């Protein structure tokens, strides 16, 4: 993708202010369901899945409300646009304030936003009620976001905001030392500044050009991967880039391994052993015995034996279908994993 700047755009380009809890939830939902974003998000995914397993206990629902009302609106492909009402470019103090803003969004704004997204990817039928501003549908979406955020974002928000604040401070120093072009030239390996064009490497099958047309660009660090502006009617386009990316990045990624390579489940390994702790981590993703063996680096027989021990302890449940055995966590196993992962 090529983002074209004029002199006015360069003058109006700025570093983002307060991060949006709603936007963080929106982008993280894509990373959770699509397993994108690299291995540093794997532990976050396991903890979130463990949290949802606890939320669903004792009887898991076939489909959670957040999957119906929220995940279906987030991107299912990196090239897909995301509704603007789920990625506000001005963050508020809390998620509740942002949800109040969402509940008060005029139907014409909802309709225009969904019409644009619908031109690029299919939308579920219930979004017709959302586009019409149906109060019950908007309230259902807000409730789904609240539930998802409570499990997937809120427990990690302090470390996320600390990393984002450090990155913004570093970019602000860059801005003072070398101007906006110095900042644009240091946004990471997937971004290249070739005046007057910012080239962003994406997974979209075709390259395309995005003209700022005097609106400038907001540069916002994100914890769950980048997002490229694609809606030509954005009031102020925002480019989300990976926090800490590029030379001079202000902080490690909030989900990067700790210094010294300490395992995040060290306390759990001390309790049940390193092999079984590793098995429990992988089982959180839902795996067959063969997948479990490959990912943990054990023989199928050893992986099956460890799973059996954890099953007898009430931490794992195994479903059999033909030749396959599929392992997943019980509520107790999810609670132990969540506690062991901090």
Would you mind describing this structure in some detail?
The chain is an alpha/beta fold and 342 residues long. It is 47% helix and 12% strand. The chain is built from 15 helices and ten strands. The strands form three sheets. A four-stranded mixed sheet has the order 3-4-1-5, with no helix packed on it. α5 packs antiparallel against α8. The chain is globular, with a radius of gyration of 22 Å. The model has no long low-confidence stretch (mean pLDDT 84).
Summarize the structure.
This protein has 15 helices and ten strands. With 342 residues, the chain is an alpha/beta fold.
Gap from first CA to last CA = 39 Å
Shape: globular
Q: In order across it, which strands form the biggest sheet? A: 3-4-1-5
Please state the CA-atom Rg, rounded to the nearest Å: 22 Å
Note the main attributes of this structure:
342 residues; alpha/beta; three-stranded parallel beta sheet; 10 strands; 12% strand
Topology:
Layout: E1 2-4, H1 7-12, E2 14-15, H2 21-34, H3 42-56, H4 65-71, H5 95-103, H6 107-118, H7 127-131, H8 135-152, H9 157-178, H10 180-184, E3 191-194, E4 197-200, E5 209-211, E6 218-222, E7 238-242, H11 266-272, H12 274-283, E8 287-288, H13 289-296, H14 300-312, E9 316-321, E10 324-329, H15 331-340
Parallel strand pairs: 1-5, 2-6, 6-7
Antiparallel strand pairs: 1-4, 3-4, 8-10, 9-10
Helix pairs in contact: 2-8, 3-15, 4-8, 5-8, 11-12, 11-15, 12-14, 13-14
